[in-house]
Write a structure and sequence with these properties.
Length: 177
Amino acid sequence: MVASDADNAGVFASREADSADGGAPPDPTRTQHEMEIRVRYQETDGQGRVHHANYLNYFEIGRVELLRSRGRSYRSVEEAGLMLVVSEAHLRYVVPADYDDVLRLVTTAVRAKGARITHVYQIFRGEELIVDGHTVVACINRQGKVTRLPEWLLGQHPSDPRDSFNPELRDSFNPEP
């Protein structure tokens, strides 16, 4: 789910301003993005708590905004004949979030190698951790065949051009609970 700006005015607020807004210019080596999300009523269950499936939607929004903060849109990925599909997802629920809470989503790309990118997510209410998790996305072409990530999508982290993004987090990342 990629939400339109008109549908979500005031609901999602990126902390990374793009250069069109006079903020920092896009950085193709950026590995982390932070944004706020206000919980909407339709995202809650009968108890007024965020329905567990909506956290995956938040994760997707975080991935798309991280890509945008690096100077690319997901649309540009598709225009290049590529798609990034989720091949693995893991969530850990710590405490519930409620209707109208303002949450802070931190999305970090911890590994990009071959055809896959691993992202780690943390969602906070204030300083309290609500949910954390990770996803692995695979790069495929229009025919649905797995294909290597293009150089411009890797973001070439200066420390290791073959295995880019955040080497400190990558080396410590363990998806097992």
